[in-house]
Design a protein that fits this description.
binds magnesium ion; Spore Coat Polysaccharide Biosynthesis Protein SpsA, Chain A; binds guanosine-5'-diphosphate; 257 residues; alpha/beta; 7 strands; 9 helices
């Protein structure tokens, strides 16, 4: 396949979204302009607002979970839809998967930087490192620290932004990372599993800006939920690592599904 042909449609964007009606339109519109992207899937994970309608109105393919199943499940649903399209389109090579959060708005275009190393076979998964955010706010950093510590303990990888949801993966890497960790543990689990299996994982600076979570009650609940999911992903993998080290030495397998 020529470079030109690849760039005309070798990437599918998957956007897990929950109650994002105010931002999903701009995010999808920008994602559609990333070179090589010819599919944008929004997985509406039981939103109570107009996320699905808005996403559809700007050209996304929308798939809905009738009830909330968490970010990891939404990513898996999106990847399954892409897989179906790859088959229907008679592709010989599956599309790469570019996961983007729903709240990036026009800065979703920065996803282009994540695609290049994957497209050229230099990385199996790229992870965005975001600049200091334009919007004020931010959490307390304890979830980030928990994720980073867990990744460091189980791999030789030292992530700058371990929770970054902006990632591009080959289909092979995505398959190798199944089953994904639950909910907001998904990014931590993906990094641990792929590094441990010998895939090349690379952090890339990309000029994304997203909604910064504040310190109000709702934000605190969000952080606590993230923390619990991250710790569950790490605990599962720690157990699997000690089990396999004692027996076959095979790569970690997540026994929680
Ligand atoms: N599938 C799914 N996605 C969610 C859920 N909650 C948030 N998201 C999405 O996950 C992404 C990151 O969420 P966000 O609130 O921005 O988290 P933060 O960036 O870590 O503060 C966004 O695309 C959200 O729409 C959920 O319950 N299920
Ligand atoms: Mg965000």
């Amino acid at each position: 396949m020529t470079k030109h042909a690849r760039q005309n449609g070798d990437v599918a964007v998957v956007i897990p979204a929950k109650d994002e009606q105010d931002r999903i339109g701009a995010t999808v519109a920008a994602a559609r302009t990333i070179p090589g992207v010819n599919v944008v899937i929004v997985v509406d994970d039981g939103s109570r607002d107009d996320t699905a309608r808005v996403a559809r109105s700007v050209g996304a393919t929308v798939v809905r979970h009738s009830h909330n199943r968490g970010k990891g499940a939404a990513m898996r649903t999106g990847a399954a839809v892409v897989s179906g399209l790859d088959t229907t389109d008679g592709r010989t090579e599956p599309r790469h998967l570019l996961f983007l959060d729903a709240d990036l708005e026009e800065t979703a275009l920065a996803g282009e930087a994540l695609v290049e190393p994957v497209r050229h076979g230099k990385a199996d998964m790229t992870i965005a490192v975001l600049p200091p955010q334009k919007r004020p706010g931010g959490g307390f950093g304890f979830v980030v620290r928990a994720s980073r510590d867990g990744i460091r303990k189980l791999t030789d990888f030292d992530p700058t932004q371990p929770l970054s949801g902006q990632r591009c993966l080959t289909r092979a890497a995505f398959q190798a990372a199944q089953p994904l960790a639950y909910g907001f543990g998904v990014e931590t689990g993906l990094t641990i599993d792929l590094v441990r299996k010998g895939f090349v994982v690379e952090e890339i600076e990309a000029d994304f800006h997203h909604r910064v979570t504040g310190r109000d009650l709702r934000s605190q609940v969000h952080r606590l939920r993230q923390y619990a999911h991250v710790q569950a992903a790490i605990a599962t993998r720690r157990l699997a690592a000690s089990g396999t080290a004692a027996t076959t030495g095979a790569a970690a397998h997540d026994p929680d599904r």
